[in-house]
Amino acid sequence: MNKTVEIGRGLYYTGIKDYDRRMFDALVSLPEGTSYNSYLIKAEKPALIDTVNPGFEKNWLARISEAVDPQDIQYVVMNHSEPDHAGAIPYFLTFNKRARLVASEQGRRLALRFYGVEESRIIVVKDGDTISLGNRRLRFVSAPMLHWPETMFAYLEDASILFTCDFFGFHTAKGLFDSDFEDIESGAKRYYGEIMLPFSSMGKKAMDKIKNLKIDLICPSHGPVYRNPQRIMTLYNKWVEGRTEEKAVFIYVSMWKNIESMVDRITDKLLANRVKFSRYNFLYSDPSNICADLVDSRAIVFGAPTVLSSMHPLGIYAANLVKMLRPPAKYAVLLSSYGWAESASRHMQDILGKLPLEVIGSKIINGPASEEDLKEVDSLTEKLMLKLKE
Ligand SMILES: Cc1cc2nc3c(=O)[nH]c(=O)nc-3n(C[C@H](O)[C@H](O)[C@H](O)COP(=O)(O)O)c2cc1C
Ligand SMILES: [Fe+2]
Ligand SMILES: [Fe+2]
Asked: Roughly how many angstroms between the first and final C-alpha of the chain, as a whole number?
């Protein structure tokens, strides 16, 4: 895509596709790269919605220049202050000395701190405030903690276009519109898991707020633009409510395959009973996939051994990841193994106990599992299958 595309009446896609980026937040992989979506609204007073990741400023400016003289731009709306969207603000405000930055009150503080924006150039907007672009008007919808405190949405009234920043986004450099994708769910769910899952209650508030808004186009800041907004809104309505499926996610660490032998046993039984599950040996797993599965799994099977009087460090990492994401899972099965002095299970409880999970059973084995141990794992699995149906 070399030309700046008009994606709606007087609305231009001025984003950057970062095909080669492979990691985000030092945590999740980006198999398809990502995009930093920025939008230009042509009007008597042109406005930009969000900018791009540092390093792409010049390409971005060139893209804007194809549609408008960038010196004519009057407003830069900062829906979110994270550098992937706000990182080019200093560059633009230095280039165009008249343009003003539009942000929420929290956004103002972050713009001062992160980007050294002159205070006099910031316009602070609250929920419901509008800004006139001359012949068009932007309205702002406060949508905090999606996923930083300053986040907001912008709504272009005459065209019913909602700019939602990270909300509704997903990491891909492919395509432009949702119609370019056969499957939206897997990418959007990976993204939701990592970024929005801990803030599902705030997501629910945002969904309620926009429920009655006429929306013809959703323009998020990563991934495709939605010409069919229902496609992503239907998924989000389910996820923000924490509706789970009859499905378990196994996350475990095992050095000598002792815990793994119990995981194998559970695997076999669930397979035989056609119960859905995803299985992650944490050592070989991409956290992005775990994030995705935590979005709608009803139960978590967690396992990690004792090492040096502690839970294995990868187990600590995995348990903390699960805790931080605050998944909607209701049930947990805990597995552990030790050699001479059990310590892992207490650490596991300390971390995972912070979640509202009902531990339906735990199995701690000394060294390898005996046939008797595995029979107990079988009955735990029976319990798990019953709970999954609830
Ligand atoms: C490097 C290392 C350190 C260990 N430290 C402890 C320990 O401090 N206390 C203990 O009870 N067992 C300790 N163990 C024994 C393991 O907990 C035991 O082998 C367990 O069965 C491993 O389960 P897994 O094969 O599922 O990883 C240690 C094992 C290793 C390899
Ligand atoms: Fe963000
Ligand atoms: Fe982002």
From this structure: 48
> Does residue 62 surpass a pLDDT of 80?
yes
Residues 26 and 151 in one domain: yes
In a domain, 330, yes or no: yes
How far, in Å, from the CA of 147 to the mean position of ligand 2? 6
CA of 166 to the centre of ligand 2 (A): 6
Which residues form the domain of 288? 248-385
DSSP-derived pairing of the beta strands 306-307 and 276-281:
unpaired
Task: Return the residue matching tokens 């230095």.
Answer: 94
Residues in the chain: 390
Q: Residue 175 domain-assigned?
A: yes
At position 69, the amino acid (one-letter code) is D
Same domain, 282 and 357: yes
Structural domain ending residue among the three candidates 188, 222, 240: 240
Which of 308, 314, 365 best tests ligand 1's pocket when mutated (most atoms within 8 Å of CB)? Answer: 308
CB of 258 within 6 A of ligand 1: the answer is yes
Q: In whole angstroms, what is the distance from residue 248 CA to residue 329 CA?
A: 9
Q: Report pTM.
A: 0.95
pLDDT at 3: 73
Query: Which of 306, 340, 363, when mutated, tests ligand 1's pocket best, judged by the most ligand atoms within 8 Å of its CB?
Result: 306
- Structurally, the chain folds into a number of domains equal to 2
Neighbours of ion ligand 3 (CB under 5 A): 84, 166
Ligand closest to Cα of 146 equals 2
Q: What is the pLDDT of residue 338?
A: 98
Separation of alpha carbons 346 and 343, rounded Å: 6
